[in-house]
Task: inverse folding
C-alpha cells in the first residue's frame, strides 16, 4: 500500500469525510509530509472503491455541486489494520535491535 | 468584490483541465472534483497550480485508456503482451500493405500477375488483419495459427525472388532481405503466451484498426509517401511510448516488442554478413533502449499494481 493511500484510509477511521476533508486530514495525519492533489485523491478513491475498501456514505449538494462522503468498509478497516501491523512489525525489528545494541554497548563500557 | 471573478477564472481553468477525463466520467464526478479543487484553492488564486494540473491531466488520461483500474503486476504484463501483439500485427499489415498496393495496381494495369507468388502480399495482409481482429476481440485460440499461416504466406514472394548463393526456405535466406521479417514470428510467439494467460478485452476493440494507418505514418514500411519520415518517426514513436508509460505501463512492453523486431533483423544481418555500416551502432542503441523500456515497464507496472 502506498503512503497516500494508507493515510487516505486512515483519514476515514473516525467516520465519513468528503474529498477536501480527506486532503486536510491526510496532511495533518502525515505531519504535512503527504499533500494530496485533488486529481491524485480521486484516482485513489476510485481504486479503493473498486477494491471495496471504501464506499460512498452520503451525498449532498453544496454551492450547486455534488459533495460525496466516503467511509471505510469492513474490508477496508481490516486492510488498513493489516498494513499498520505490518509496518509496526517492520519498525519493531529496527527499534528493538537498536535498543539491544545500545544496551550491549552500555554493558561493556567501563564503570 | 474581486472574489467572484477570481473564483470564476479559477473554475474555468479547472473545468478546462477536467476535459482530460472522458465525458461519462465527467458527468459522474466533475462537479465533485471541482468542488474539492475550489475548496483547496488558496485565497485570491486565479489559475490552477502546476501540481493540480499535472494530477488532473495524468488522472484523466489514465481513465481514458483504462489504466486507472486495479491490476496485479501479472495482469499489467499480460495486457502489455496483448498490446505488443496488436502493435506488431498493425505494423505487419502496414508493411505488407505497400506491396499489396503495388501487386493490385500491376494486376489492374496488366490484367495478370508478374508471378503467382505475388499473391503472398495481399494474402499476408488479409491474414494479419484477421489476426489483429481476433486478438482485439479476445479470440486468442485462433490467433497463433492465423499468424503462423500469415508468416508462411509472407515468405512466399521472398522465396521466389531467387537470391543468388542462398538456400530458399532458411533463416539465412529470409532474414537479411526483409527488415520486417520478425514482426509476424514475434507476434505468433506472444500470441501463444496469451493462450496460457488470457488478457481482458477493451470496451471498443475495433478502435485497434486505427493502429494500421498510424503504423503506415510512423513506422518503417515500403510506402513511398512515408519513407522520408524514417528513421525519425520511428524513434519519435519509441520515445513517445517510453513517455506514455507514465500514463500506462502496458505500452512500454508493446514498444519493446517493436524495437526487438528490428534489433533481431540487425543482429541477423551482422551475424550473416559481418559489420555493415552503422548497424553495430544501431544494435547497441536498440539493446540500450530495450533495456530502458523493459526497466521502466517493470517499475511502472509495480507502481500501477500498488494501491
Result:
Amino acid at each position: 500500500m502506498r503512503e497516500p493511500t494508507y493515510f487516505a484510509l486512515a483519514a476515514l477511521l473516525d467516520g465519513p469525510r468528503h474529498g477536501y476533508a480527506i486532503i486536510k486530514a491526510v496532511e495533518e495525519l502525515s505531519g504535512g509530509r503527504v499533500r494530496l492533489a485533488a486529481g491524485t485523491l480521486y484516482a485513489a478513491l476510485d481504486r479503493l472503491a473498486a477494491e471495496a475498501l471504501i464506499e460512498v456514505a452520503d451525498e449532498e449538494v453544496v454551492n450547486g455541486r455534488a459533495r460525496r462522503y466516503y467511509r471505510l468498509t469492513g474490508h477496508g478497516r481490516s486492510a488498513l489494520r493489516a498494513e499498520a501491523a505490518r509496518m509496526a512489525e517492520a519498525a519493531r525489528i529496527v527499534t528493538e535491535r537498536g535498543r539491544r545494541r545500545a544496551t550491549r554497548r552500555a554493558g561493556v563500557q567501563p564503570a | 468584490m474581486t472574489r467572484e471573478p477570481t473564483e470564476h477564472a479559477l473554475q474555468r481553468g479547472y473545468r478546462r483541465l477536467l476535459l482530460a477525463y472522458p465525458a461519462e466520467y465527467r458527468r459522474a464526478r466533475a462537479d465533485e472534483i471541482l468542488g474539492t479543487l475550489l475548496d483547496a484553492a488558496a485565497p485570491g488564486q486565479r489559475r490552477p497550480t502546476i501540481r493540480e494540473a499535472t494530477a488532473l491531466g495524468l488522472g484523466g488520461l489514465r481513465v481514458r485508456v483504462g489504466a486507472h483500474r486495479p491490476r496485479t503486476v501479472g495482469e499489467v504484463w499480460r495486457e502489455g503482451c496483448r498490446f505488443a501483439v496488436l502493435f506488431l500485427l498493425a505494423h505487419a499489415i502496414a508493411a505488407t500493405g505497400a506491396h499489396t498496393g503495388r501487386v493490385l495496381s500491376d494486376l489492374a494495369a496488366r490484367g495478370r500477375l508478374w508471378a503467382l507468388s505475388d499473391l503472398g502480399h495481399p494474402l499476408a495482409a488479409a491474414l494479419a488483419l484477421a489476426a489483429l481482429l481476433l486478438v482485439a476481440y479476445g479470440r486468442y485460440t485462433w490467433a497463433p495459427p492465423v499468424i503462423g499461416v500469415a508468416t508462411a504466406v509472407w515468405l512466399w514472394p521472398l522465396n521466389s525472388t531467387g537470391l543468388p548463393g542462398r538456400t530458399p526456405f532458411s533463416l539465412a535466406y529470409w532474414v537479411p532481405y526483409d527488415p520486417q521479417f520478425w514482426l509476424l514470428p514475434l507476434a505468433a510467439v506472444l500470441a501463444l503466451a496469451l493462450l496460457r494467460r488470457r488478457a481482458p478485452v477493451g470496451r471498443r476493440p475495433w478502435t485497434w484498426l486505427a493502429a494500421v494507418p498510424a503504423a503506415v505514418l510512423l513506422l518503417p514500411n515500403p510506402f513511398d509517401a512515408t519513407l522520408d519520415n524514417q528513421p525519425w518517426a520511428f524513434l519519435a514513436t519509441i520515445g513517445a511510448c517510453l513517455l506514455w508509460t507514465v500514463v500506462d505501463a502496458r505500452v512500454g512492453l508493446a514498444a519493446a516488442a517493436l524495437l526487438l523486431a528490428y534489433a533481431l533483423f540487425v543482429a541477423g544481418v551482422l551475424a550473416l554478413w559481418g559489420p555493415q555500416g552503422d548497424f553495430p551502432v544501431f544494435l547497441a542503441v536498440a539493446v540500450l533502449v530495450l533495456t530502458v523500456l523493459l526497466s521502466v515497464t517493470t517499475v511502472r507496472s509495480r507502481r500501477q499494481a500498488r494501491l
Q: What stands out?
A: Residues 73-110 of chain B form the longest helix (38 residues).
